[in-house]
Amino acid sequence: MSSLQLFVLVVLGLCCAAASSLTNVDPTNIYLDTNVMVAADHKQGKRSLRQYTAYDLDEGDSEDEERGVNISEQLDGVLSKVDDAVGKAGKAPSKLDALIMKNVDEFAKFADEHARLSKELFGKYPRANELSLSTLRQLEKIEKVREMDIKNGLKGNKVEPDGMRRKIVPFPGMKIAPEQDLLSKVGRDTEHYKTVGGRALAAGIVTRTNEKGEHEILLISSSNPEKYEFLIPKGGVEKGEEVRKAALREVVEESGVKADIVRELDKIKISEEKSIQPYLMKSDVVYDDWSESLRHRLWVPYKDAINLLDNRPQMLEMVKGAKKHIG
Fold it and tell me: Is residue 191 a contact partner of residue 237, using CB atoms and an 8 Å limit?
């Protein structure tokens, strides 16, 4: 057996061992971060975690956004690819052997971390074991902040225009949303109702890419800190407001992200009285302070978005519709 084959066997074995401590975990569905990637705008990843410093939490690798690599291929298929690579490159040199063994330790570390975080978050996120390590790391930090918020009685409201805004101590380089976007629109008396009596809603599927061109989708936490769920930014259309402008406004109000519309997606009917018009968007500017900064931002790969939205059929439909246009 070649060194590369041994490497693959050891890695898969470590993945299975790490997963065995969890309930209902498929070892072939583990996500491991094998290298560090950054967002298209390097500073965006860090800005997603600015609020955590209010509680002096360890930000770890907050300047970078790690990406998950799904170790899910069948063993025979992987070994076949390894054999092809070895056949083309010739016998693996001793330096490569050493590099492989070093990487085994890295894989073991990632597998252990994934298993630990999956177990810790399982009670709040039943499909935690299916999420990438990048997403689990973000959720770990978010839950630490959520715990402190609840302990301190910090709970927003949608009655006051600034009822969902977090008090943030200014810091160098801080980006604050434009004044007109710092106060949320409250109440539904100003929302646009169609002549047939239906309520019009607009939503934004916001994406960004990392250095390798891999897409991430933006999710936001519920306005209720005791709900462990993440959503797509959406909201009502005001009287006299264009639907596309309403979508952009809702995105910046709820997530603190200024985005550009890429294209209009298929309208989704919720009921006879209500429908949602979603738009595919691309992230432009990420703000540190915005109108609903009590919410948490989560940038996730497509598969993680599907898992986290599994109890939101309309939002699932929106994300799946967007996927057709983002690869």
Answer: yes
